[in-house]
Protein: YheC/D like ATP-grasp
Organism: Kroppenstedtia eburnea
Amino acid sequence: MIGVFMNKRPLNSMIRGNTSYEKLEFYRHFVDTFKEPLCFYSLDNIDPYRASIDGYVLLPGKNLTQAEVRVPEHHFSRAIIYRQRNLNKIKKFIRNHRTRFYQFQSKKERNKWTNYELLNNVPEIKSHLPETYPLTWDNVINILEKYKQAIVKPIYGSLGKKVVLIEKRGQIYTIKEKNEFRLVHSEVALEHLEMYYLSKFKRPKRFIVQQKVNTDRFRHRIYECRVSVQKTSSGEWEVTGWAVRLAQKGDYLTNVSQGSEIIPFSRIFNPKSDTAYTIRDVTTRIAKQFEKHFPDTIDLGIDLMLDNNKHVWFIEANLRDQRLSYYNDREMWRRTTITPLVFIQNQMVSESVTKDG
């Protein structure tokens, strides 16, 4: 049995069948195909000192049932832990029961600045990284002077929230941001830009500033590639899914949650082209580097952009890929859901053989 650790809200939504990204039917496909039971649970369902979990169990050919089961030895984390007391609880649970967690996610693993630094030390990856710095007023100005466009984003943000685009056009600066999914822009002089900066980013340590990629366009709209790179049954990193998110016309954000359109990767790129090869190469190199620093990483959703010369740029890595980019391709959505579980099952078999030997 594999434990599947989730945050409480998506777990309850999945049980009711109304979650947008955790699909019980895909987990059921894994259980029925590979004959490996799953136990779904949240932080509320565990006690570091109890040898059992009061979770939701899926057995081959059976419906999801609430049951108390022995703590599994292997777990796949789909949860994000931010609060220190919750982090302490789950770490104590892992330590007391000697369990193994794959894809563990706390602030440490999700820090965009830390992730940039660990990738920036690899020559083969560095050329694919936009210039990025901790947010300061001087760093904003330096990026604007050099590239004319700067992106400011939260270190721990997701779904395109609180991401701001600033553009320099002569002595005028254009600010673009989203307000309740509505694109808002304003034009200001330098002194007013500084006033905006001081009022908007009162805690600059929570943000980074980044070179804005001069993005390639499709149908006059910018786009971003979401690439799933995962540990497969072979134990190797492989690209298991990809799609393109097409921003709304005039928008600078490509997140599905911000209204972007999802189109198949093959609509823009030939999967056998040099560009597709480069995307596979870059994403697998990035995944291997993440694994060096976070050894139990097995599942990444990597966002890439291409510039006008088709050069590939890394934007960010998502350690809990919600797979919304595969909404129109259920086969790809299913495959990227079960691939990490197949890898974990193979690890369980290998460990069992080693113990028996």
Q: What stands out?
A: The chain has three domains: 2-106, 111-129+215-343, 132-211.
